[in-house]
Amino acid sequence: MAASLAGPDLDAAFAALGDPVRRALVTRLAHSDATVGELAKPFDLTPQAISHHVGVLRRCGLVEQRREGTRRPCRLKADHLSLLGTWIDEQRRAWNDRIDALERHLADGEAH
């Protein structure tokens, strides 16, 4: 799978999103930035476990963390997430084209 140099590692991003906790973190971060402690609140997980999940999302390019004094809020990199959607859309179009071609082929066969 190809990814832009500035974009996420698509293989790593899809693997990261295979985990339900990380998908929930992405959903939460889509609403607003949050610290690891804030992200941990709805989960029965330690902040260290959430920090690990955030690290996975950071390494694949979907989340970034910045320093604001003593806070380190996490932010979803929505542009990188949209690259995953673009890849999925391209695959969907390709498969739809193949299915349309198969339907035309089958219809031509029935006409003869």
UniProtKB/TrEMBL annotation:
CDD domains to which the protein is assigned, alphabetical: HTH_ARSR
The domain of life for this entry's organism is Bacteria
Instruction: Enumerate the GO terms in the molecular function aspect.
Output: DNA-binding transcription factor activity
Stored InterPro entries: ArsR-like_HTH, HTH_ArsR_DNA-bd_dom, WH-like_DNA-bd_sf, WH_DNA-bd_sf
Boundaries of every HTH arsR-type domain copy: 2-96
Which PANTHER family does this chain map to?
A: SLL0088 PROTEIN (PTHR38600:SF2), TRANSCRIPTIONAL REGULATORY PROTEIN (PTHR38600)
Q: What is this protein called?
A: Transcriptional regulator
- Organism per entry: Catellatospora methionotrophica
Source organism phylogeny: Bacteria, Bacillati, Actinomycetota, Actinomycetes, Micromonosporales
